[in-house]
Amino acid sequence: MSSLANQIGTVASVLAITAVLPQVLKIWRSGDTSAISLRMYILLVIATGLWLYFGYLIRSSPVIFTNGICFVFQLSILYLKLKQLHAFKSKSISDDVL
């Protein structure tokens, strides 16, 4: 891959990670995922995982780097979303029993 292509990929990587980081930090700090869609995050994790694999197949460091970091961020948010949904359902069930 050309040097220019790698430079563009690196800039795109930095911008992509910088764009998603504030949302990730906000969710990590608050633990509140109520404003995000579970379906959307499942699809996003799958898509990012495929981009990560694609980057591996074409041996593109910028694609691997960016999608690797975003994949970890998105998995952590998906985990928090599922944890919050489970807690909500558990609370609803215990409220119904009482």
Give a verbal description of the structure:
It is a single chain. The chain has 98 residues and is an all-alpha fold. The radius of gyration is 17 Å and the shape is elongated. Helices cover 88% and strands 0% of the residues. The chain contains 3 helices and no strands.
Write the SSE topology:
Elements: H1 3-30, H2 38-58, H3 61-97
Q: What separation lies between the terminal Cα atoms?
A: 64 Å
Structural class: mainly alpha
- Provide the gyration radius in Å: 17 Å
Count of alpha and pi helical runs: 3
Largest sheet: none
Mean pLDDT: 87
CA-based shape: elongated
Q: How much helical structure, as a percent, in the residues? A: over 70%
Q: What quaternary form is this?
A: single chain
Question: Low-confidence spans: pLDDT under 50, at least 5 residues?
Answer: none
Beta strand %: under 5%
The number of E-state strands comes to 0
**SSE order:** HHH
